[in-house]
Amino acid sequence: MLRFIGIRWRLAGALFLTTCAIILALGFYLLEWAEGYYTSAITQILERESRAAGDIIRNLPSEDVPKLIKRIGHDLGHRITVIDSYGTVLADSAHDFRTMPNHADREEFKEALLNGYGKAVHHSSTIGTDMLYVATRHNVGDKTFIVRAAEPLSGLNEVRNEIKKKFLAAAIAAFFVSAIISIKLASSITNPIEGVIYAANKLAEGDLSARAPETERSIREISLLSRIFNDMAERLQNTISEINKQKSRMHAIFDSTDDGILMINTDNVVVMANKTAGFMFGVEADSLIGKTVIEGTLSHDLSKLVERVILLETPGTLEISFTSPVERTVDAYVTPIVSPEDFTGVLAVLHDTTAAKRLDDIRRDFAANVSHELKTPTASIKAMAETILIRRSGDEKIVEDFTRKIVEEADRMARLVEDLLSLAEIESQQRQLNLETFALSEPIIEVISKLREDAAAKNVELVANIQDGLVIKSDRDAITQILVNLVDNAIKYNKEGGRVEVSAKAEDQQIVIKVADSGIGIPKEDLPRVFERFYRVDKARSRQSGGTGLGLSIVKHLAEMLGGTITADSRLGEWSEFTINLPVEKLD
What we know:
This protein is α+β, with helices and mostly antiparallel strands and 588 residues long. It has 4 domains: 45-157, Beta-Lactamase; 257-352, 2-Layer Sandwich (Beta-Lactamase), CATH 3.30.450.20; 357-427, Helix Hairpins; 435-583, 2-Layer Sandwich (Heat Shock Protein 90). The chain contains 16 helices and 17 strands. The chain has a 5-stranded antiparallel β-sheet, sandwiched between helices. Strands 7-6-10-9-8 form a 5-stranded antiparallel β-sheet, sandwiched between helices. α11 (354-390) packs antiparallel against α12 and α12 (396-427) packs parallel to α16 (551-561). The longest helix has 56 residues, at 2-57. Mean pLDDT is 78; it is low at 1-8 and 539-546.
């Protein structure tokens, strides 16, 4: 009996000490590796930032360098210092460089000056931690300067402490397991246990039919263990089989729905995603799994909604807009998944409302704009007509003025209706192109002649600059309509004594037509929207000039119908220029 106990404990002690030594060695190796990896990664980042900063400032005037270095340091989140070859600080992102001492004795400075690259670690008494400095040499002509980037190594201490905590917990658990295994191995009952272990391994590999051997000659506890294991394996096999069936049914439902579905655990990590969800975010559904919501979807709004539902364990809804891979709007509904035992995560259902919202916005904007555009002249006509009725025997001049204004407002309504019909005809592709070959100078001169009187009324000079012999095959009426709208706008929004130039030339297999004016210009923020229906930069001035707000939208659609494009450029208060690029020959 004593002999048996002595061997068991000797074996247990030997295995236990060996395991302890391996775990300790592994822990020290892991700690050293993590420190080296962290320092190497930070060093590479600082080197890239140092070289990039040097390349940016190499050709700048010296007086501009300090300000730019402060901005670079702020953007990068690292301290950046510029030092000349004598150690004098020229700029620093964190301190006033004029009060800083000479750095010629700094290790990283000397190494970088000699070899082109240097690094060193100094302790900072200001923030109470070690700082990693990486310096690179830059040459501009016969001048040399050093750019140094710095990063506190407090993060390394945090990593080191975290590894120590994790290692200590893991080591305690490992020591405990090692002691148990040592005792069992020394008890000379390994054979039946190995049978259980073998069956367990087969089960872990996916062989659900694996079972542990059972024999009456085994020790009662081992025999009981085998039976329990086999019962567990049987239940596990049945459970996994049922889970696989349910999983197949669930995947079939997931992949057949038009809504995007994400299952997210309490760590905000996606554990399941259907094909529609992947399509919405422009990725494969499988690539979302294992990532946090923000990493997988790049949507801060969705991530915050999920975090709120996880925190409060109550459902939440939100309309979310994406711009990548395409502009899309979805209604997100996120609800907690609560099992009988615990809260396990959330389910996010994403319903794509892009098309419906776009149609609703178009319908609402169109109705609002049309009603507004018609309401103003209608109200004016009604008010002036009522005034005429009231003052029928009054001043004839007033009656005549009101009558003239009624005609003007009616003309404005007629122009609006005409533009609406024209735009609808173009958008519905009901307008047929009448292709013919003609000299481009003809419609340009025709439009200038037609609008010369309007230009003269504002003392605006109209000029044509057309390449000789420029011929195009296109729809003449469409080009004329484009030019009338653009030149008319250029006159209306010009300055007294201004200038409008219409130019045309062949360039890179295209016909380029430009309408430029010296007028009031367009604010930069309004340029992307000038071709929208009813969009006006100066709404009051546009209505006073008789504009309907549809002219540039018609121009854009006509240019695209002719196979071309139109762009706008401007400088507020100085000039505007619209450029139409048309193919040399528009084919049927």
